[in-house]
Amino acid sequence: MIELTNVTKKFGNKTAVNNFSLHIEKGSLTMFIGPSGCGKTTTLRMINRLTPYDKGNIVIDGTSVNDIDPVELRRNIGYVIQEIGLFPHLTVFENVAIVPRLLKWEQKKIEQRVREILELVTLDQSFAQKYPLQLSGGEKQRVGLARALAAEPEILLMDEPFGAIDPINRLKLQDSFLEIQEEIKKTIVFVTHDINEAIKLGDKIAIINEGNLIQYDNVSKILSDPANEFVENLLGQDRNIKALSLEKAKDYVLKDGFIT
């Protein structure tokens, strides 16, 4: 679905992303994590060409992103950021409908899609006529997600979308997001600085440091077999407990009265 091959990006003399290669499967949720300034957001932004890369190539469904008109590319890729970026003078309906209108959808189709997407992100239809100032932080984030999904993109890029939300509502948003992804099965690239969030949400995790991809694998493999000391430190001393949290009761079989 998304293929990054030997991608490099420099800002002046500083290499932000160094010879970065990664394959992201269709319908998967891939988490980018690493310390501040490691290149995770730069890598995300190169996928939709908000940041141009200097070397290498990024291919989506067999086509280099450099061969796609950047405006057209961004209209077909959902994008959610921590600041949300809702237009304060527009209602929720108008915010969600922005990309469908740019794509010249018929009004009836737009209205139907806004209703569907508000239901998907568990917002009552009455929210359609509210303005951003009338919303809580969690509600704004749901509207931001709704707007990113409104035009039914196959790819969704998310840059620390829950980072500014308080811990309790953040957990609720994570749970809701997993339920939504289970239904829509989009190809999602999600930047986070929170290892617990990465473990909870991700199908795979890409661990990045100083512009280099340190380890890329499914969550259980990273927890059981960290590539080096940097990854071990990122995972924390309780990584075995984190690994246990991935287990589900249905994976265990009761035999002769004992769990096996």
Description:
Helix content is 37%, strand content 26%. It is an alpha/beta fold. The protein has two domains: 166 residues, Rossmann fold, CATH 3.40.50; 77 residues, no CATH class. The protein has a six-stranded mixed β-sheet, with helices on both faces. It has a four-stranded antiparallel β-sheet with strand order 2-1-4-5, covered by helices on one side. Strands 11-12 form a two-stranded antiparallel ribbon. A hairpin with a 2-residue loop joins strand 4 and strand 5. Helix 5 crosses helix 6. The relative contact order is 0.16. The C terminus is likely disordered.
Q: What ranges have pLDDT less than 50 throughout 5 or more consecutive residues?
A: 252-260
The fraction of residues assigned to DSSP E strands is 25-35%
Instruction: Report the mean per-residue pLDDT as an integer.
Output: 92
CATH topology descriptor of the largest domain: Rossmann fold
Specify the CATH homologous superfamily of the largest domain.
Answer: P-loop containing nucleotide triphosphate hydrolases
What's the helix-strand series?
EEEHEEHEHHHHEHEHEEHHHEE
Jot down its keywords.
260 residues, alpha/beta, Rossmann fold, 2 domains, six-stranded mixed sheet, four-stranded antiparallel sheet, 11 helices, 26% strand, disordered C terminus
Which SSEs are present, and which pair or pack?
Elements: E1 2-11, E2 14-24, E3 29-33, H1 40-47, E4 55-60, E5 63-64, H2 70-75, E6 77-81, H3 92-96, H4 98-102, H5 107-120, H6 137-149, E7 155-159, H7 167-184, E8 187-192, H8 195-201, E9 204-209, E10 212-218, H9 219-224, H10 229-235, H11 239-246, E11 254-255, E12 258-259
Parallel strand pairs: 3-8, 3-9, 6-7, 7-8
Antiparallel strand pairs: 1-2, 1-4, 4-5, 9-10, 11-12
Helix pairs in contact: 5-6
